[in-house]
């Protein structure tokens, strides 16, 4: 048994002790594992370095590409550079400006040791964000995808994108499905939300970060507001801290705590005590401001009232601060303040002298008379229609490039410096290169019209006050200028003159308002249907909206009978619309007589014009203010055919002298020929309006230059007022017959017309006087021979008179010379027959001139 135990123990010891061979076997795997670990770490470090280097290389490349794209966007360049520039804009549209920003941002993030997989994700997210931005721009700017097929849509998007007016081809991926499915508003909301989400994904920001960023300024504003409130509280408490001497007898039985005390032994008073405390507080404030004796009265205030003084004021201030944001109330207060300041107290009214009161009553009475005329409301006129011009920018850009290319093909180097789009035409302002003659550009008008496929092109070379040539191209979509949008404009409302007229819009779309008094006379000419009658209606309507009948009176002559007859009965008319050409000549004769009477009245009162006379009439009771008179002739050609001499003489005299007398002529004709618009009429009427005419000859008759033959009609006109170097192209206001009828009915319904019977009688007299002279065409002379003045001059110069002498000097026959002798004897210029002796001359030259002036004055009156 002992031997067995020993062997077992030795066996255990031998099993527990490792042999040398086993030790060697265990140390070898440990060293090899250690070597493998070091090798794998080195391999990982090498891979990380390679990845870092690769990431930095890609970051540098992406950053450089971002800068290159930015340069391609902002610099147009030439040749290949220009082609890439157009391709970028054609694909991305105006959203291409976000492309270099995103590329540079991802390049910066790549340098911050982020994984390549993360960078690739950000690249895809940036591309989606860019597509969303392009779609948003397309929907907001253009609002639609125009084209019959998908190919046409892509072409249109590419062209508009290259012109920088759309979202480019990329916008079709997101924008077109959303626009078809959700409409414009829904698509816009969805794209904005998704764009916000992708911006958060790209930047790595969270909603909490966004809320913190948004709440920081709000918190700062709140802190500032609280600090400001505390400062105001301290200021109010400082104002309420009044030192009052209460005296030893009036001291309170309990300790008084100030408004800043920490412990209060007494409870705060109830709200029921506030009226009494407020009264005490008002007494203190009033009495301390008046005199020192108020301190004695203030000593009766109790301690409770002193302690609770600031509270009512504080509540009042809080209420005031709460009511300040109410804007309508503030506006009513501001409107009410001037009326209170202008109000006069009863003692001041009693102190006014009787003369001032009488004067004020007279002014009030005149004001009441003027109030009788009610201006027609603007609502009677048709409101302008909202113009929908979606693809105007594409048209303008394409026309500008075609203009430059067309002129370049003829060897004329130019560049477009400005584009002005009006209601009817668009003016492209081109600046030619040095050495280019203007005549070379003006001679290419037909070639430009051919290349632009336009109806006609008018060239203004050069534009006044600009170093450029204006090429006016008709718009494919014309806009109607309504009279309401010009009359309701600031320019017309702020015009001080009572003769202001809403004419239309110029080539830049600006309202044009002119003063008839500054013209001072106007000639309107144009072919039938060009807008001449509409222009006259616009003029009359503007006067009815601007002036009362006491300020402006109208004398209308309408030989065509149907144009101005609708205005019969308005209070502005002096007489009914004159339609008879014979009476029209008499009406012009009355106007000449009225002009001379006004000048005599001005001379008697030592004033120079109507404005000075009306100012004098406001101070003198025996003088009555005179209205301005506008004489409107709708068709001059008929009058010139019926009574050419009388009409031309009256128009010339009025045009020469009537401005200072407050009388103005507006003459219209549809036949601008030299036998209608004579040289004498043109010389005395400086301001002209030309509508479309048939030939350049007619245009030169009206404007002394060509251009009216290139007009489009339907209100397209050239306005050439006095003092302007060149005519200005305008689109005249359109007023329909229904609008005219409604305004006329409103005016007639509120104030009846008062025609002047004296003027009507005078017109009848003038017409009757002229009638025999039109039909008389005797044997070369009548009761007043046309050679009578020459015969009188001859005999006064020779100091003797005989029939043979007149035959020799005037080269007439014996019968006519004898009749002239009899006529002079009747007028008392020569003596009776004395046989063979010459007759005596009984008048000197001065006496003859005086007699001649008196006769002309009698004829005019």
Automatic annotation (TrEMBL):
The keyword Membrane is annotated on this UniProt entry: yes
Domain FtsK: 509-700
The organism's place on the tree of life at top rank: Bacteria
One Gene Ontology CC term in the entry: membrane
Record Pfam families: FtsK_alpha, FtsK_gamma, FtsK_SpoIIIE
Matching Gene3D superfamilies: 3.30.980.40, P-loop containing nucleotide triphosphate hydrolases (3.40.50.300), Winged helix-like DNA-binding domain superfamily/Winged helix DNA-binding domain (1.10.10.10)
Key words, A-Z: ATP-binding, DNA-binding, Membrane, Nucleotide-binding, Transmembrane, Transmembrane helix
Residue intervals passing through the bilayer: 57-75, 87-107, 127-145, 157-180, 187-208
Binding site residues for ATP: 526-533
Span list, region Disordered: 1-45, 301-355
Basic and acidic residues bias (residue ranges): 306-324, 346-355
SUPFAM superfamilies: P-loop containing nucleoside triphosphate hydrolases (SSF52540), Winged helix' DNA-binding domain (SSF46785)
PANTHER family on file: DNA TRANSLOCASE FTSK, SPORULATION PROTEIN RELATED
Similarity comment text for this entry: Belongs to the FtsK/SpoIIIE/SftA family.
Protein name per the record: DNA translocase FtsK
Source organism of the structure: Massiliimalia timonensis
